# Entry
Amino acid sequence: MNDPQNNADVPKYFIVGNRTVQLLPLANGGIEILKLDWDTGRFVPGEDYLPKVMFGKDEVERVSEDEFIQQTERMRRELFKGDNTVFTLYQLLDTIEATAKQEERLLTAEELGMIALTQRKTYALFDKECRFNENYFKK
# Structure
């Protein structure tokens, strides 16, 4: 059978420590390796991560696309502040989480679903809406 986890034609997603890394198949049969940049929140070439994702053990976790997006957006929320649609949505997520914490309770299934959907949206919007040092900055 064809195992999609081992298919070279599909993106592969990893969390290395706290950093998200993706391996993207290229039309010529090669791969592009991108890592989350701590300074801008964008994805930059990450060839230095190939040995880590191929041979790393303890700090490397292969994850689904959803887990990859959730971790990427957690790190962006933690590292950056700004004034655009993305950061308005981040503030909404911060409010949801702060409310649950203040009420000394876990997030509800509905809240977790809302967070996941919102982070999918912010992930898609980040490159379109965010201009570093113009409408968002490193904290």
User: Anything to note?
Assistant: Strands lie at 12-16, 19-25, 31-36, 43-45, 60-63, 80-82, 136-138. The longest helix spans residues 109-129. Residues 12 and 23 are 5 Å apart (CA to CA). Residues 1-5 have pLDDT under 50 and may be disordered.
